[in-house]
Design goal:
The protein is mostly helical. The protein has seven helices and three strands, in the order ααβααββααα.
Length: 158
């Protein structure tokens, strides 16, 4: 697989997860290249406008996936993958699950009258998100341990 194909697959995958395709392409590019890149570098390599590169790097920075750095004597901003972007991905997922859980809790409490079938669907989906959230913090702790000890130090039974 060529590098450009992989970068495009990153874009498509992140787009399927609700992020802009260009954001995924930026992540793919930075995963494959060492060292920080300027907006000009990103725009040139990904063949996108500098405005689009800027908008999407800001989005990724807000999510904690990218970090902005600087070089002495250079006024430009540089971007690179954040130190532990994996933990940031957990945070984003947890936030998404909490939003859906809270929406379902609100819907279950405020919708009336609703059929038993409708209430059961809402409560079932609410339980699903509650289940996902139950061990989420423990999963982050396990991730941190996995990061420090590596896969060999974590026997998950898989």
């Amino acid at each position: 697989m060529h590098e450009t194909d992989l970068i495009e697959k990153f874009g498509l995958t992140f787009e399927q997860e609700g992020l802009p395709r260009i954001a995924g392409r930026i992540i793919g590019f930075l995963m494959l290249h060492s060292g920080p890149c300027t907006l000009d570098d990103l725009a040139e390599h990904l063949q996108v406008s500098k405005t689009s590169a800027s908008t999407n790097t800001r989005l990724l920075e807000q999510h904690g996936i990218l970090e902005r750095t600087a070089k002495a004597g250079d006024r430009r901003d540089y971007y690179q993958m954040a130190g532990d972007y994996g933990e940031q991905m957990f945070s984003m997922a947890k936030h998404r699950f909490e939003r859906f859980h809270n929406l379902l809790a609100e819907a279950s409490g405020k919708l009336s009258p609703v059929s038993d079938e409708t209430r059961e669907r809402l409560e079932n989906m609410q339980r699903f998100y509650q289940f996902l959230l139950t061990d989420f913090d423990d999963m982050v702790v396990r991730w941190r341990s996995f990061q420090t000890t590596g896969a060999a130090g974590n026997n998950t039974g898989t």
